[in-house]
Amino acid sequence: MPLRVVVAGATGVVGRTLLPLLRDRGHHVTALVRHADRLDGAVAVDDVAVADVLDPPRLRRELARVEPEVVIDQTSGFGGAGQDEGLRRTARLRENGARNLVDAAVAVGARRIIGQSMTAAYRPHGHDVLDEDSPLWTEAPGCWGDAVRALAAMEEAVLTRPDIEGVALRYGALYGPDTQFAPGGAIHARVCGSELPLVDDGVGLTSFTHVEDAAGAVLELLASGEPGTYNVVDNEPAESAEWLPAYARMAGGPAPVSLTMDQARTQLDWLTVHQLTEQRGATNFRLRETLGWRPAWPSWREGFASLFGLWAA
């Protein structure tokens, strides 16, 4: 059944992938953007709502005008920002913007809200691959800790309101066109510039999510599925010693150099060391078993190869 849907963060990598899929299914789609000129003519929508999620009165007025049944939050603060600044911006959006969006959605009578979270926020625990019941690492240090605490606040705002159905989608490392893994992106530049090394005895796990799979999971949960949290990741969490050299080869970059743990702590920022050495991957079992969802890109191997034109989809 067609729904009236608002997509916040419509100009982001997931939002741009999601908009045409929603319209293909017959939904009435409104893009919620801070500036109308951010949407180019290549992205077709039924309506545009211009409001900042950090401006509650304007946000509520725009949602009241378009009367959504479902509100989807895909906002991010990383556009054009470095790592620490991107984390600070995103933390503000997750904590304050998400609460404003939930309040506005409830006020205008929306029945479901879908928020964006991430599996990288899980607290490291041994060598486990983690599920949705695993705790978020809210006591993590620095900007990363601020970002995780903001995610936890966002999830609480989305999931605990009795007057709306809340869903939190925890994505893995997003890759695909226009992401940090694509040519010109931040990870691509670091790998090709020999700035992202391997760390001896590093067992950090990364779960990957193609932007098409992120958008596909939103579609699956638009009107069905129990409220709650879902990991949206591929089937193959990978150690940095596995995915990083493979990515470098496909990107045409040099083989990653190898550092000892002591060297890594001296030469790299704390978050990069954490990701390469102790971060844990996630399982998509709940989403697969409860909704029958299957990733279109079940492994990052094929996804990376497609990104660099090495895989015939």
UniProtKB/TrEMBL annotation:
Residues 5-232 form the NAD-dependent epimerase/dehydratase domain. One of its GO terms (cellular component) is cytoplasm. This is Nucleoside-diphosphate-sugar epimerase. GO terms for molecular function: aldehyde dehydrogenase (NAD+) activity. Pfam families: Epimerase. It comes from Saccharopolyspora shandongensis. PANTHER family: NAD(P)-BINDING DOMAIN-CONTAINING PROTEIN-RELATED, PROTEIN YEEZ.
